[in-house]
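$ run holo --ligand "iron/sulfur cluster" --emit tokens
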Amino acid sequence: MAKDDNKGAARFLPDRRDLTELRRAAGGCQGCELFKKATQTVFGAGPAGARFMLVGEQPGDQEDRRGAPFVGPAGRVLDRGLEEAGIEREEVYLTNAVKHFSFTLKGKRRIHQKPTAAEIDACRPWLEAELAVVHPQVVVVLGATAARSLLGTEFRLTRQRGEPIPLGEALAIATIHPSAVLRAPDRDEAYAGFLADLKAAADTA
Ligand code: URA
Ligand code: SF4
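-- output --
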């Protein structure tokens, strides 16, 4: 076995591939260093037959504590966008490119740290397994980290957002991350662009 076969999440994947088993197995993943400091694995959430799969970057502080994706400030932007785009929550499976929270400590505060390329690669087997089980029609790619994981290093969000891109049997639509809406100098404008991309995703399904 090549040395690299021991790296990453692949060797933690279960034989039986359904969401219950995947979630259980991901709880024990040690495919990269991130499990050491984080509270828990934050696996995806939603029904197996969802038409839409939404992929974020990684859990944030609140997601890490609560064990569910998009339950903090970015999740509130996302919820509003989904509702305004006419996408029902029951049609959505939500997950992240990286399943553990990456942070640095600043005093007692945990400051979000972008996952590295190696961490994104290490965690991709979980995302691929989720895609295979959920089998969505449309994959909404939220921000550059998810785009790197799913669409490769050549993909440019600024140029290619909002347009359908074949991804296996699904179509992917990329947009900015909801956290980027919150950080934008002009939030209303950023949100309008985000919503337009979500509407494009709704029309694609
Ligand atoms: N940001 C993400 O990318 N994912 C979450 O689950 C929360 C915040
Ligand atoms: Fe495993 Fe992903 Fe967590 Fe790394 S971030 S330990 S690959 S689940």
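-- notes --
The pocket of iron/sulfur cluster (ligand 2) is lined by residues 9, 26, 29-32, 34-35, 41, 98-100, 119, 122-123, 126 (CB under 6 Å).
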